[in-house]
Structures
1.
Amino acid sequence: ASFLAGCARSHRAAPSGSTRIEFQEGDDAGRMVAGWSGFERTGEGLTFAWAVGTSAAVRFGPASRAPRTIELRAWAFDFPGAPPQEAVVFVNGCRVAKLRLSPAPSDYAIATPWSVWTDGTNVLSFAFSRADAPRDRVAGATDERLLSVGFDRIVLRPGAVTE
């Protein structure tokens, strides 16, 4: 896996439990590093946040060095004629995946090796292929934020994907 070159670390540690970000008031606000709008709620009461601009990051920790599965529930900002939204996913600066995101809320799982994680605080970041203001793309919209992807949740689970 050449995309992990330079991202290998030296020691293994025992896996810890799952960690969740639900994008709602409380502890989640302190985990949002950069690139996020405020917390919002759908008509059904689901909490989420928009990633604004072409990059966003969240902080997890403390954690131990172990293989983990990153699970996302997310969707691309959509409008008539919108090109596909792609997201490159990084753990502590190491590229772990490239996803094409659906405009409908969808679940994604990314298996990651122990070598990209550190003991302590870890940063999960995203680089998006586009960000658009609804005002410029949707008739009647007034929102000027540059929206890229809506996130309902991010869960880190110990171990690899087992499906």
2.
Amino acid sequence: MNPRKTTTSLLILALFILVPAQLFAAGDRAKAPALVAKTLKGETISLSDLKGSVVVVSFWATWCVPCKKELKILSKYLKAKKDKGFQVIAISMDGPETASEVRSTVKRYRWSMPIIHDKDGSITSVHNPRSAAPYTIFVDRQGRIAHAHEGFSQGDQEKLEGRIDKLLAEKAQ
């Protein structure tokens, strides 16, 4: 057997094993579970109604400093990229002990995206069963989950924007 062909074959095989499937085909993405809820303003919002847009769903809590940092950045991106079909839904996971702080936190930070307070945890149990905070789901224009990310730390800002821009560049089907 030719050693050069064997090495090439092994490299190609390793590439398919080691590189995540997400990088190969957007067609392998799973459909996002249904999400229908009332916002703090009393409006009904549905993830399916936003099909055709890139949507970031961010799970947060008033006591979570990284959550507020991420939402500040997402709010900035929303203002800059809304015309390109970008949307954000922020879902508060605050329990009874901090529920009274949700509205004042939203007002203090002047977040303009729809805010849902998941008082009973029914949305979180489906979309974020580990109740991670922050937990961010990136939904493509076809309503499929393109990526999910837990936590937020220094340097994640560039990754967030890169993922958003990549999804915005994808053609709607």
3.
Amino acid sequence: MKFQLLENIDDKDIDILKEAYDDSSVKRFIEIDKENFWSYVTETENVYFYKVYLGDILVGTAQCELINNVLYFALVVFPLYRNNGIGYDIVKHVIGGITGLHFSRLRVSIDEANIASLSLFKKIGFVQIGRDNLLIDFEYVI
């Protein structure tokens, strides 16, 4: 598994990323501002957006925002590659330090209807720390 930082909106994979984020199964749980999202993740300090490859195949993304030693995290596994343990591997790689970012806690917010993600993060050892409407907040302490 290889993580590659998305450095600018002229990246060779930007069209693939835009298409993936426009897929109904992704849009169901992750809303983005199409006009500003890609600039936000490439130009904002302490925001890191990684393309995740399995071999030479782009299979998903990991968005990280580092604030006060807490890494806020969002994960997308592209529809064609789901249910193969890729999400689990991505999270374990982030916990293991593949990004080079230094943090003591990892946090995610998951839509209560996203049963697969809820199961994944609980399986890895994340614990629920809060709730805001339909979003459930989880944390993993390093």
